[in-house]
Write a structure and sequence with these properties.
2 copies of one chain form a homodimer.
Chain A: H1 4-10, E1 13-14, H2 17-23, H3 33-54, E2 60-69, E3 74-81, H4 88-96, E4 100-101, H5 117-129, E5 133-138, E6 145-153, E7 158-167, E8 180-188, H6 198-208, E9 213-217, E10 223-226, H7 249-258, H8 264-271, H9 277-287, H10 300-310, H11 336-346, E11 351-356, E12 360-362, E13 365-375, E14 386-391, E15 394-396, H12 404-410, E16 432-440, H13 457-509, H14 517-524, E17 526-536, E18 541-551, E19 559-563, E20 571-573, E21 580-583, E22 586-590, E23 599-607, E24 619-622, E25 627-628, E26 631-632, H15 635-660, H16 662-665
Parallel strand pairs in A: 2-9, 14-16, 17-25, 24-26
Antiparallel strand pairs in A: 2-3, 3-8, 5-6, 5-8, 6-7, 9-10, 11-13, 12-13, 13-16, 14-15, 17-18, 18-23, 19-22, 19-24, 20-23, 21-22
Chain lengths: 687, 687
């Protein structure tokens, strides 16, 4: 026994982070040969998209995969982008040093964050093939590109470099490239097709990055191309400061001890988001600290009290200090219209609904959930629905079962919304695909491979609410479809068979055929609305036609309302029926009295849209008798529209505030945290 | 555009590993308040068990949880062990520095490996409560214990220490403690009961660590105790050298460049397991390298050729170099008997079967799968079976769905083995629990929190085979039970009703009651075997009684065979019927001719076992007529027994070899990799 403790202790030593990840390369997504290739593509493409977005460049990315040695599974991957490029002296650190990067401490939405991804690729290549990764990068201000071969000294977590130099970067057309980065990596990997493949990864990436142009040349030399479908770059995101609600005690202690601020007042105003001058005063009062206290005198219990004031556990004049919500200009959602566009282009279907919820906050981090659902078309109806998961515009392709986003889908009883689901739990079955995207300043993954989201109550709740909302849209669509089908059947029956019977009877009895219009109307006894929303190839417009039939025996008067994607910039033209704008994205027509047996048509077109943007128009009505094929306009719907309008105007304020800085943040009237209500899928095609 | 690349690059900096894990604390298992507490307990208990095992001490561990501040969710955790203790100067590094430890480079089975766990706990405490962790540790060679408060400078990944000192460690009974470690940590956490709780974690730990004594005092002051059920420490594991089959090119390059060996011959013999002198010669020849080459002259293509020789891609005299399998003394499985004991003690059931497969190898790492299945008793039959997952004797409590071990269970069509399962996929339903344990020198988890195993083809295959084998045992058990029940019913019917009818008829007809024995035998027309295996409290023995009934009209002769846990050290006593040992763990009795209507009994007892060790005896027979309640002894069964015997003798060789080093390894006749056949559950209670 004697000496065993010393003996055991003598073997202990420090391990470098690079040794750790080399041994645990599966943490980084390098667990099988097939997945390793996808991981490598993913890291390179993520970096390219992030760099382009930060430099406000519309990304054009080219990925080429070739088989170098089929027997030994050696593959060469080349990824080229038109990003801003990397200055020569930074290249080695970016590619050859783990945990080196610019985004770790920044609080804003980005794909990469840790500074692990691409270095992991370099490390994996070196480990499996012994080869370095060739990097070529050109920045706009220099005439030539820097080239260098990068490896990794894993014992020290330092880059090794060889063959460094400069060259003119000629492009295919002979011109020299202005700016961009290209990596050439050789690794042990397997190229596969199917549900988990490079192709599928790029296809999903293109859905949520409609501003990117992606070209992929597979090992057989086949060229796959995903077009840029919008010229609009994602909203520019700004880094924000941490919000007091998300601060832990240990973090606050460190911030205080490292502070270079003059005093507590400056400390509070300079280092946090959501702290106005008034909030600063209230925080000091609640924490019982003088604002003029020098930072180095603030210790121990002072910091504890300050944290308690942050968390509303200490009151100022009987209530917690009033903090603003964190600004949401650190987030860049895809937005409903683009999700819809991406989905309808990629998967053939009958019905699409999308929904972007308002931003919310968890542990001081702003986040936003977006969902989309497509239904019908050629999808299989006896299989589980396809789940498309995304985080900060990056597709998640593995660990579906262990992901928070999947759990949110599984937690909904989809049977009430018209999908099959054993026991009301789990992924539902049916001809549908569900898309869910989390945009967040701090996406919490279950591991460094960033393939599944870790549990988080608030994110779960938001995602679930979005699902429920979307489910209601689906149910409405299915019910309406059913009702319409029934009415149509009845109508056809009556219109075809009744006259036939009448004619036959008249013939047999040798009497004149009776007038049936009255009888038919009596039997139908309904007002029916039919609408079509069709893309017009020639005019490049979306044509909408709404028809209202009065199959009742009385005169009817209605106001008919229709939704249109005003928010996305669409304009109504050729609307000869007139009417007026009722609210954001809702047009209204007050119709004259409609006589029994009469019908009326409303026609107009929408401009400013592309094909697939708008495929169904929701029709609403005001009036005493129900209209089959339209929804009654009620207070709830109106409230939602008003809320939407209000949000729209708030968003404008936020955008302004990002320019002028902190003071303007005060203009944001209510904290997002206090608005947990679901947001209605106003522009979803659930009509 | 100009300057954007420089601007982006200027924000880049190096992040410390501790900053990384502080931000991503959920990677380490600190994602919710409830889970954080379980993670803290787990890390402390894992360390205690590992230290005790390495120092060959029977562990006695005490865990106490108290609520310090209910409103703010502050909890104090104290974990005390009787391990070897930690020398004073090592304490700060062990507890206050990430990636510091002794097991990272060692190739052998251990619970902890990365040097992250306990430092993660210290970091979490500091972050959430601002408090340091108090450590007290005493080693046997010093008279007093070292005490110190440990924190973490996350910017530098260095420990901070305060209040360091020495004290006499008084125990409850007033004596001073000889050796051990105690940590007192205060953290933001929630104590919960239920399926994912500290209690459940400790209960599961006690199942797979039957040599540990664990006491848990919960926040209400209630004491929970799990006794030590065996005095036998787990087999001592030895570190092994890497096996050539698991080497990657990058790793070999580093080994070559860092080598201090005289020449290639020494390099090959000194740094790898499985390389005999003959293998060394063959490897050199295949790689076309002189064994006397100095290491510093070996570069580039030489290393590539050496690797290809390792992988059998380069041949020596027409065939790959013959490598031995890696030694398996680096593994310490729980072993069938102890799994069975743990399971039957913890869960009430009717049927238990366990199975330890022979060690196998993946990527040069030896591993071994063990499984257990319990069925019946008070478990719910309409719920999914309980899945108990373990890796290196540590319970896995989260991410069940994403774990390789669960996937192995889900991949089996359990319907054919008598359990319900929708579509023959997924976790089956039924009154059962399935235990699966992976022992490995390199357990690949999906993340640092070590809650789920990452995908690996070979491990999956082994786990699946174990499941299939166990499933067959379950089916046999259920079929036998059904058959026995049917026969018994028939028997009772005939034995009760027939005489009653006969009597009644005789009475009515006023004639004598007829002799029915002959008729009954004729109707039954079966030989039936019944056996009981019962623990005798007084004698501390397991009493077995086997009864054979001949309900046929002919004379019958049989050899009856019974299994007993010879491998686990049990002895047969009081066996008056004589017989002889047929094979390892199989006894045989040649019975005299059994007359129609006769019965014969075999009685004996087993010593050297404890209660719950052996609850069912498998009965086999040799003879022409089938015996209900026994299995026909066939060639397949015998082959399995012989294989078992052979393995048993091989194991002895392996154990010897570990003492004398490499040369003796040559005595191991066949590589484990070449023995993929399932191992029969000889000692499982599937009789």
């Amino acid at each position: 026994m004697a000496g065993i403790a010393q003996k055991l202790a003598s073997n202990q030593k420090q391990v470098a982070i690079s040794e750790f990840f080399e041994k645990n390369k599966h943490f980084l997504g390098f667990d099988s040969l097939a997945r390793s290739l996808i991981t490598a593509v993913k890291e390179a493409v993520d970096n390219a998209l992030d760099a382009c977005e930060e430099a406000r460049i519309l990304p054009t990315i080219r990925i080429q995969i070739s088989k170098i040695d089929v027997k030994k599974d050696i593959i060469r991957l080349v990824v080229e982008d038109n990003g801003p490029g990397i200055p020569q002296k930074s290249i080695e650190k970016v590619f050859g040093q783990l945990l080196f990067g610019s985004r770790f401490h920044a609080i804003r939405q980005s794909r990469g964050q840790q500074g692990i991804g691409i270095t992991g690729v370099v490390m994996y290549c070196q480990l499996t093939t012994g080869r370095t990764t060739h990097v070529r990068s050109k920045i706009a201000t220099e005439p030539t590109a820097a080239v260098v071969d990068i490896g990794l000294d894993t014992r020290k977590n330092k880059a090794t470099k060889a063959n460094a130099g400069r060259e003119i970067w000629y492009q295919e057309d002979g011109s020299s490239k202005e700016h961009g980065t290209e990596i050439t990596a050789e690794m042990k990997a397997k190229y596969q097709k199917g549900r988990q493949s490079v192709w599928q990864y790029l296809r999903m990436t293109s859905i949520v990055n409609p501003h990117a142009e992606i070209t992929f040349i597979d090992p057989e030399g086949v060229k796959h191309h995903w077009n840029r479908v919008t010229e609009r770059l994602p909203t520019k995101v700004e880094s924000i400061k941490p919000h007091p609600h998300g601060i832990e005690l240990g973090q606050l202690q460190r911030m205080v001890s490292e502070s270079k601020d003059l005093n507590l007042n400056h400390f509070l105003l300079n280092n946090f988001s959501g702290v106005t001058n008034r909030a600063r005063k209230e925080l000091c009062k609640a924490a019982e600290l003088e604002g003029t206290r020098k930072m180095k005198t603030i210790k121990g219990d002072d910091i504890r009290h300050l944290l308690e004031a942050f968390q509303g556990e200490r009151l100022c004049d009987g209530s917690p200090a009033k903090l603003l919500k964190p600004p949401t200009n650190c987030l860049s959602p895809i937005e409903e219209m683009l999700i819809k566009k991406g989905l309808s282009k990629t998967i053939d279907s009958r019905f699409v609904t999308t929904l972007t919820r308002v931003p919310s906050v968890t542990q001081g981090n702003p986040f936003q959930v977006e969902v989309g659902l497509i239904f019908g078309g050629s999808m299989a109806s006896d299989k589980p629905v396809e789940v498309l998961r995304f985080a900060n515009r990056v597709p998640l392709m593995y660990q579906q079962g262990g992901c928070l986003l999947t759990k949110a889908i599984e937690s909904v009883d989809w049977r009430q919304y018209g999908l099959e689901q054993a026991g009301g739990k789990g992924v539902p079955k049916g001809p549908a695909a569900i898309l869910v995207h989390l945009a967040s300043t701090n996406v919490q993954f279950t591991s460094e491979a960033k393939e599944a989201l870790a549990d988080n109550g608030e994110v779960m709740e938001e995602a679930r609410k979005a699902m429920l909302e979307m489910g209601r849209g689906l149910r409405k669509h299915l019910e309406k479809k059913k009702k319409m089908a029934k009415t149509k059947e009845k109508f056809e029956l009556i219109n075809d068979i009744l006259p036939a019977i009448a004619e036959k009877s008249a013939h047999i009895l040798d009497r004149p055929v009776p007038e049936l219009a009255g009888s038919i109307t009596k039997i139908m006894s309904a007002v029916i609305c039919e609408s079509t929303t069709v893309w017009n190839k020639e005019t490049k417009q979306t044509d909408v036609e709404i028809t209202l039939f009065n199959y009742t025996s009385r005169v009817r008067a209605y106001t008919i309302l229709a939704t249109w994607p005003e928010k996305a910039g669409a304009k109504i033209i050729g609307n000869d029926t007139g009417g007026r704008k009722e609210a954001l994205g809702v047009w209204a027509w007050k119709l004259d009295a409609l006589q029994p047996g009469e019908q009326v048509k409303i026609n107009y077109s929408l401009t400013g849209l592309e094909r697939g943007d708008w495929t169904e128009t929701e029709i609403l009505f005001r009036g005493s008798q129900d209209v089959i094929g339209a929804t009654k306009m009620d207070e709830k719907f109106l409230e939602e529209i008003r809320r939407q309008e209000k949000l729209q105007s708030e968003e404008v304020v936020v955008e302004d505030s990002s320019a002028t800085g902190e003071v303007a943040q005060e203009a944001i009237p209510e904290p997002v945290v206090a608005a947990p209500e679901g947001q209605r899928t106003l522009f979803g095609g659930d009509a």
